[in-house]
Write the structure tokens for this entry.
Amino acid sequence: MATLVDGFGRTFPYLRLSLTEACNFRCSYCLPDGYRADGRPTFLTLEEVRRLVRGFAAVGMRKIRLTGGEPSLRKDLPSIIAAVSATPGVQKIALTTNGCLLPRHVRLWREAGLTALNVSLDSLQPARFAAITGHDRFDEVMEGVEIAQGLGFAAVKLNAVLLRGLNDDELPAWMDFLRDRDVAIRFIELMRTGTNLAYFERHHYRAEALEQQLIDTGWMLRPRAPDAGPAREYAHPDYRGRIGIIAPYSKDFCAGCNRLRVTARGDLRLCLFGDFGIPLRPLLQSDDDHEALAARIASQLGLKAAGHGLHQGNTGITPHLASIGG
Ligand code: SAM
Ligand code: SF4
């Protein structure tokens, strides 16, 4: 089976595919004014997604994450999951969602072949959740997580962006939450993007500070799987749940990069903070282009840089993470 390897010896079994730029939330670090369509956006169709995933699977992709914007806003999400699931070579299909539509749809997604779920939950306090996301829907998200936990997913994980002054005092509450629950929470360090500079200056909190608190209280680092995401995951004998740390500003973050991204309009992005996209959509119009598509993906990988320029304040062409699928 083919494997993609870049000029720095990194392999890429993991694709993050954005299904839409639209979102129904207004997270203060992402889309504080809500989503506004520019003209009539045309996102990849089901057929285009099917061809795209087949092309990536041919060059070694084994795990795919469907993201956005808010992917659950796509009415054809169950059909997309089923099409991805039917693609030879694909072993894991994960979805990242803000969670508010889970109670209504998560059973259907699971039946269609979804294997893992990440739900964003920036606070365990409903009022704070509403202040951060712009929507008072904490109870629905929690209900959805509970339902999902009973559906036999390989993993149900929660994501919280660490925000100084807004949710940086919740580690004890999270530990209580994890004591008897088989879930993992990932704390994500706030990333600077093209549109959140002032917010970043105000609320950036270093993930490594939180990580030190974990180590000091007896949490231990677990080994990392080859297709795992970027989190460093910790476990503790007194707790059923696990805690992951995603620290994009840490020294070796890019060295462990194992993923590529495709935007909702079909551009390959070699890095979340890269300066350019590579259009794949022209090769998604016919099954006859399958080999040309696989060849383009493999050849463009040579352009992947060793690391992002976030330390120099270079956020690339990403205005916010909803535009590329964080
Ligand atoms: N709408 C879905 C959601 O919120 O889960 C999927 C897309 S969202 C862009 C994916 C993840 O990126 C979420 O966990 C969100 O909290 C995170 N995110 C968005 N902007 C971010 C930023 N500037 N820094 C760090 N994480 C961010
Ligand atoms: Fe929407 Fe996700 Fe961005 Fe929040 S983080 S505004 S839910 S895309």
Observations:
- The longest helix spans residues 46-58.
- Residues 14-323 form a domain with the TIM Barrel fold (CATH 3.20.20.70).
- The two ends are 28 Å apart (CA to CA).
